[in-house]
Request: fold
Amino acid sequence: MRISKNIVAIACALFMVGCSYSSLRPEVVDRSDAQRMQTVIFATIVSVDRVVLSGDGDTGAVAGAIIGGVAGSSITDSEKESDIAGVLGALVGSAVGSKVGDAATRKPAIELLLDLDSGKTVSIIQEEGEYSFAVGQRVKIIKNRGKSRVLPLQ
Reply:
């Protein structure tokens, strides 16, 4: 019975990690944004810099804690020792999972410095996508619920 609980806990942790991905690529639009009016602003690119989006260590930490706790608690038959090993396993699993989750989910990105047609200069960071950007290029900025996507103006 204990082995089946362990398998279920590990499967749940892996499922949770798999569901946490959300794309930040400009050509990928959330389903909830379809058929919603969004604000459009026009701009010219001043600079394009490569950056790295940090990974999601939180999801890895949770998954690692669950897996570590389950694994730790199953190493002995003594209830007291099992509880202690479970806590230690969860702590170690959380630390390891956080590092693994961060490293596994890092993404190449770009920072675009933009001169808006209004005269204001802004910076927008987004995951690298299928579009290429160059200094002097005209772009459109799609704004919706506090998020902005930059796309080439064609």
User: Anything to note?
Assistant: Residues 37-54+106-154 form a domain with the OB fold (Dihydrolipoamide Acetyltransferase, E2P) fold (CATH 2.40.50.590). The longest strand covers residues 39-53. DSSP finds three helices and five strands in the chain.
